Amino acid sequence: MSNMESSTKEIKLNDLEDEPGTKETKETNTEEEGSMGFTSINEIWRNVIILTASFLFLFTAFASLQQLQPSLFVEDGMGAIVLAVVYGFFFLSTLLFSASLIAAVGCKWSLAIAITCYTGFMAAHFYATWGLFVPAAVFVGLGAAPLWVAKAHYLNLAAHDYSKLKGITEDAAASLFFGFFFFFFQSSSIWGNIIPSQVLIPVADNSSPEILSYTSNNQASYIIQI
User: Which of 161, 139, 133, 148 is nearest to 35 (CA)?
Assistant: First the structure.
């Protein structure tokens, strides 16, 4: 009897020791199993709202700079060339890079890495030189495709958990989240165009010492309000 009791205790102790590792494995494999591991409706909506707000603010800033860039950086066509580099590498990363990054680090880290690339590109505008601007454009182009693929995958995984908790179909949950996301995200184009329209203004002369004037290839002159 004592031998049986001791073996039973050993088995229980082994089970307790295995629990943390098992829990970590479950957390690591949730994305592979088609789930984010959310356990409540509020948790799901909180994460979807944070994701949506992050994209709204990120692309409001990016859209503003994208509209201003060809007019601000006219020397040697820097603005237009940098945008061409961004979308050229966006094309390449769509074909070659996005799936492998998400498979390696998961949705959340892919989003974090890609957003960091966008933030670095925006920061490069404070010191716009070829040596800084072009590498920043390469990184934002490479990060763009993983950003969008990871976003879509994240919303689909959240929709899977939501459908189980809510008792609806996964397609209905995915439609709800994508509709919510794009309802707010598309407004970034509005804010992103309003900002340049208020900042970049055509003028007849640039005699005021409080403004900076930019002229592009004999086109209209513009000022940047300070």
Answer: 161
The residue count for the chain = 226
Q: 184 and 50 in contact (C-beta within 8 Å)?
A: no
pTM over 0.90: no
Task: Name the burial class of residue 82, with classes exposed (0-12), middle (13-18) and buried (19+) by CB atoms within 10 angstroms of its CB.
Answer: buried
pLDDT digits 0-9 by tens, 179-212: 999 999 998 888 877 877 776 665 555 555 444 4
In angstroms and rounded to an integer, the radius of gyration of the C-alpha atoms of the chain is 25
Does 28 have pLDDT greater than 60? no
202 backbone dihedrals φ, ψ, rounded to 5°: -70, 140
Whether the CA torsion 132, 138, 144, 150 is positive or negative: it is negative
Alpha helices by DSSP H, the chain: 2-29, 41-72, 78-96, 98-123, 130-166, 170-185, 187-199
The pLDDT, as a whole number, for residue 27 is 42
133-157 average pLDDT score: 94
pLDDT at 66: 83
Tell me 127's DSSP state: G
User: Which residues neighbour 211 within 8 Å (Cβ) at sequence distance 6 or greater?
Assistant: 203, 223, 224, 225, 226
